[in-house]
Amino acid sequence: MTRPNIIQIVVDDMGYGDLSSVNFGASSTPVLDQLSTNGVSLTQHYSASPVCAPARAALLTGQYPQRGGVIDTLEAYGTDRLSTARRTIADFLGAAGYATGLVGKWHNGAFDDRYHPLNRGFGEFLGFRGGWQDYWEWTLERDRAPFAADGRYLTDVFTSGAIDYIERHRNEPFFLHLAYNAPHFPFQAPEAEIDQFLKPGVSRRVATIYAMIQRVDLGIGRILQTLEERGLADNTIVMFMSDNGPQLDGEGEESTVRYNAGLRGAKQTVWEGGIRVPFIMRWPDGIEGRTSLDSLVHFTDWLPTLLDAAGVRYDPESFDGRSALPVLQGSTRAAESTRFWQWTRYEPLATSNAAMRDGDWKLLWPAWPLSLDATPADDRLDEAIKRDPSLFDPETVGARPTLATAPADAAPMLFNLRSDPAEAVDLAEAQPKRVASMARQLDNWFAKVEEDRREAWSADAS
Fold first, then answer.
1. By three-state DSSP, how is residue 270 classified?
2. Where are the domains of the chain?
């Protein structure tokens, strides 16, 4: 079989409940709903982190993000940088003869050229290197050349860039990482489209988010149409996912709180609502469609999965993930069922906002107070340099703050996700041996990835 083309679509902060097929039509995603019907959808698909930079690092490398030194999103401190010692999927596929392109968001190294996408295996880049951009007054790069706003909506710029890439590489195997900014802050969409979703009980901000998602859905429709017109649809892997769960906060018309399929928590938390994310895949030549699978699949699994699909040889022990291709193709072999998560602002903390999944069981350490928060000064700096990267001055960045203190009653919680996907019933007191065993495993994992993180930082600093 001819090597498949690969289009990896990643949206930003889109929740499990943001598909109209899930939220009873509150949003409008007919293209994605149809893609799900015709392809394979996963009901237990997990990001590697509840925030974007670490999640993306795992997707790119097949390893937990800490191993590559990526622990946070604040570009000023460099904690979003993916170590140059880690190979990306673009490195692997490029070496195997694929054209490799990135359209959209990078966020794995914004202010140091060593981490530029063109130095990380991608042959082409149209997008931005930080965490977000304004949807109207954007400033992008086309490879390394500045590309200023021209009146178009940012989502449409990325859709057109993706189609252009497909057209230019349609006669060779290609890999396209398409990372839409939407529906991440700032919440902006054409007014007429926002009005479509303004209904009683729906805040203006939620209506805006649904309009942003609708524009992504329309863009994906244009991409799928291009594949059909060029005869590429059958042997192109199209995969869709979100980097983490949705932002759910605010009040009144500024509230982003909306349906999230009954999952507890949201972006930034390791509750299911922060890390369980939508996933859809279509590959007519390689995978039988019209299927929904409940196998546990994790971001680290996608790099080996795609290498398998492309016929690229690799060392399975070099990844934390395992190929999910057999599961996607109908194998009854159980998927890897042990996974780990941890994220706190500024400094990794073993017993704050950390979790482990082992089969149906999930151990979770709730976040300590202040362990997820940036300082007001860092929030202001972060927004300023995202709007204008030229404002970044490394000489003015001090040491990373330490804000969190362990509460006196800190203790892990235990849930059975098969019977309690909403994480409503804590079984820790009833299962002390299981809690102790899982806590030890989580501690051991944390110690190992922290050692790798320190080595990665040391190597890149030298």
1. coil
2. 5-337, 340-461
Sign of the four-CA dihedral 285, 334, 361, 341 = negative
Burial class (CB in 10 A: 0-12, 13-18, 19+), 200: exposed
* Rounded-to-10 torsion of CA 263, 267, 269, 272: 20
Contact 295, 359 (CB under 8 A): no
The sheet with strand 413-416 has its strands ordered as 338-342, 354-358, 361-365, 413-416
Q: Render 132-155 in DSSP notation, one character per residue.
A: ---SSS-EEEETTEEEE--SS-HH
Beta-carbon contacts of 429 under 8 Å, excluding residues fewer than 6 positions away, are none
| Residue pointed to by tokens 């190979």 | 87
Is residue 100 pLDDT above 80, yes or no?
A: yes
**Out of 3.30.1120, 3.30.300, 1.10.10, 1.20.120, which CATH number does the structure's domain 340-461 have?**
3.30.1120
> How high is the pLDDT of residue 264?
98
> For residue 96, how many other CB atoms are within 10 A of its CB?
17
Q: In degrees rounded to 5, what are phi and psi of residue 305?
A: -60, -45
Strand locations in 270-377 (E): 279-282, 291-298, 338-342, 354-358, 361-365
CATH superfamily entry for domain 5-337: Alkaline Phosphatase, subunit A (3.40.720.10)
The secondary structure of 175-227 as a DSSP string is EEEEE--TTSSS----HHHHHTT--TT--HHHHHHHHHHHHHHHHHHHHHHHH
Q: Are strands 139-142 and 145-148 parallel, antiparallel or unpaired?
A: antiparallel
The pTM score is 0.97
Distances (CA, A) of 384 to 127, 133, 147, 194: 18, 11, 19, 26
What whole-number distance in Å separates Cα of residue 72 and Cα of residue 374? Answer: 11
Which DSSP symbol is given to 276? Answer: B
Q: What is the pLDDT of residues 190-215, one digit of tens each?
A: 999 999 999 999 999 999 999 999 99
For 68, the 3-state DSSP assignment is helix
The per-residue pLDDT for range 153-196, each reduced to its tens digit, is: 999 999 999 999 999 999 999 999 999 999 999 999 999 999 99
| 80: pLDDT strictly greater than 90 | yes
